[in-house]
Amino acid sequence: MTHVMQASNLVSIRQFIHQVPYAPEQNSEVAGWQDIILLKHSLLPGEINVPGLAENLLFVSLLPKTQYENLNDQRLKSMVLRQGDVAITPAGCSQHWRWLSPFAAANLFISPLLIKEVSKDLVKGDPDSIRLIEHDVKSVPFLSASATELLSELEAGSPHGKTYIDALTRSLAMYLVTHYSTAKVAERTALSKPDDTRVAYAIDFIESHLGEDLPLAAIASACNMSVNHLCAVFKHTVGQSVHQFVIQQRIERAKTLLRDPRKSLAEIAQEIGFSSQSHFTTSFSKICGSTPSQYRQDFN
Length: 300
Fold this sequence. Notes:
With 300 residues, this protein is an alpha+beta fold.
């Protein structure tokens, strides 16, 4: 069994990253993401001793084949990692890893506070008691797809914004709590009338702040709901996820702004909250079937 360290002895990933000789190719800290730190490494054969970390770790292999060894409590496990394979290491569990061939991975370090937060609306009992369960390497398509999508966002400069990153992160955390934790998942309750009212507040807040970066936490706070509860009731009431609704409303606002020939596409993109003109054009084309420039020409 993996050795578990006391909370007082845990090392944060921010501390540990400066103690190892392997610099990451990508680091989500520079992007200002909340609740997770995503690191991408591509390495030649080597090994590393990982102390008990303060964060939970989701590891995703990125190469077609890697010879890998894991030494815990004097027991050596040898295996072949395949692309998309994942492993879960709970906070506090120390590891010793050795890779005997070139190695590439996305490592997601997930805050225990996020696990606690998403547990509040998902589980029976005290969310403070919820812990992730260690799992050896296995194929879990949802987790590998979520991790690689987050990595793609990071490598592209987070073009979809914080709402999308928050949604991906929380969806991943909820999946971990539901499938790979000590939790007993609670039965979902029927939505109440006050939920409908608070969704209306959320919509008003979104429409009033379309030009901003709109993290889920800000929207949830505006309508006095937890982020988990907001995501659940919003999808049930509106028929779209919060992220989908935000994009749709930005596109609708763009259609109005495109009628003014004095506004450049870059100005419109910034005014409605897109990270770049390119992201605006891509999203507009996907929803409307034409580019913003074509839409403007057709309208005029």
